[in-house]
Amino acid sequence: MPSTFFGLNIAASAVNSFQAAINTTGNNISNVQTKGYSKQVANRQAAESLRVNQKYGTAGAGVTTVSITSARNTYYDTKYWENQAYVGHYETKMNYLNQIENYYIDDGAANPGFSTIFANMFNQLKALTSADGDDNRRKNFISEAQIFTNYFQNVSNGLSRLQKDCNDQIKTLVESINAGAEKIAALTKQINAIELQGGIANELRDQRALVIDQLAEIVPISVEESPVTNSNYPDMYVGGTNYIVKLDGETLVDTFEYRTLDCVPRENKVNQTDVEGLYEVVWADTGMKFNINAKSMDGSLRALLEIRDGNNGENFQGEVTSAIGSNVTIKPSTMNTVESMTMADEGVITIKNKEYKYTGFTAKLDADGNIESYTFKLENMLDSDTAKDVLGKRAEIGDSVDTMGIPYYMGQMSEFLRAFSSRFNAYQLEGVDLNGDPMGAFFIATRYDGTECDFKDHTVSKDGVTGADSVISSTSDSYYQLTALNFNVANASVRDSAIFATASSNWIDQDKVDAHDIVDAMLALQKDVKMFRGGSAEDFLHCIYSDISIDTERAQTFVDNYTDIANTITNQRLSVSGVDEDEEALDLVKFQNAYNLAARMIQCMSEMYDKLINGTGV
């Protein structure tokens, strides 16, 4: 039978148990504003009953606190991590798209953009039809032309800065991933050290989950946790867990071990207008490229790479038709006009998943002035087996990133400026300046060394057709050299306003001082000539703004949708793991009453024992 003091033991177990419950509630209240903290619960169960050899069987032995655990729901955690990758992706993307959009805003006189500047330039050009020999009017036009070129330089320089900012942010996020992986491995080691001894590391588990929360916004994360069991007895749990974190299917953390990513600067540009030193993200242990273009990849890192490298799927692509020695000839499926060429003058071309460095290229034109084929000069010779193996295979430069990022908008500006400048210059080349000398190119490209590229190797007719005698290569003076970054007015015209052709030579021969037949023809370039995406030159901004507005609106829609989902999941998580002040206050009252009753029971038992021992004389 139970001892005489059995009732006192029962009361003591209640006091101890509810003391633990009150302490746990106090801990919850003190951490109500702690980020990542999850509510802790003192789990109680009836103590093992005792056999008393009576006909009523066994006697209850009181209560015991078996554990203090965090109230977390794995399902809600997983859903939160999955959704955060989408939130991070579209929030980051929208942020940068808004910045790109700002570069193309045209608010008229207050903040003049392309449409205002372009119209002003043609208004000044039209003014030359009444007095083309007037020096002031000629200077006014040339000044507006410089404003026109400066506009594109400013926009392209702004986009270049934005690309560099994306690049720097990519490195910062990669460092955050590495730091997070290291911290998860360290926390897991501490957690297992405690739990192998029978404890539960609630606070450390909360810290680890918080790191996962933060990583999930950068890259898609999945978590697998399994108990460590005895190898001889698989059903025997020995304490501790295996904790595996995967980054888009690749293991990032394996319990105590972790992998890191590395940012390796590109040796060569992918796009002609890329800034120097763009990073490739690779796995540090293998050197393999991190597959950021995987369909399942999301997160803010993916968004940064899309903005930095997005080409709308219009990177150089084609099929190898010939491979002899170090020369590889490719029939292009993209970039089949000079205006659309955006690849760097030297870089890396991928054929059959193998990279080959090229040091230059030439383009062969067909009868219509389009590019029939490219011949790339490789840095190293191909052996005969490799040359045969690459025939008919797909070739491309850079990745096909189906997003309208900075390379896309830079390429669109270059395409427009090449089309417009080549037609404008074609009229100029037919005329003479006020000195009676043959006119050269008015719009030119400024090389890095400050010299001018006047496109002497590239002839374009007034209807935009490239002449068969043109030499298009990575080094020739062709319109390939012209980008928004180096678009300029020829120095000769800036220094002397007389060096601008308004009339053809036959008018000069007839001594017509104010002849303006070339000006009359050039005025049609503003509205009447189709030269960019099926529209006129003045429609350029409408095309670009339409692209970016649709992309921004789409990103905003997704941000709103995934943020709403995130809020719903967060509320569900908090309903399980969050600390609610009112609920904790109610628990305090409830546990205090239970504690007081247990203490009253001890007092009652004390009085009984006093009567039994002292009052009965036993």
Descriptive report:
With 618 residues, the protein is α+β, with helices and mostly antiparallel strands. Helix content is 45%, strand content 20%. It has helices at residues 6-30, 74-103, 114-127, 135-195, 202-216, 300-309, 384-390, 406-428, 491-495, 505-509, 517-522, 524-527, 540-577, 581-615, and strands at residues 40-46, 50-54, 57-59, 63-70, 221-229, 237-247, 250-254, 257-258, 261-265, 279-283, 317-324, 327-332, 347-351, 354-365, 371-378, 394-396, 431-432, 443-446, 452-453, 472-473, 487-489, 503-504, 530-532, 535-536. Strands 11-12-15-14-13-16 form a six-stranded antiparallel barrel. Strands 5-6-7-8 form a four-stranded antiparallel beta sheet. A three-stranded antiparallel beta sheet has the order 19-18-21. β13 and β14 (354-365) form a beta hairpin. α2 (74-103) runs antiparallel to α4 (135-195), α2 (74-103) packs antiparallel against α13 (540-577) and α4 (135-195) runs antiparallel to α5. The two termini are 20 Å apart. The mean pLDDT is 89.
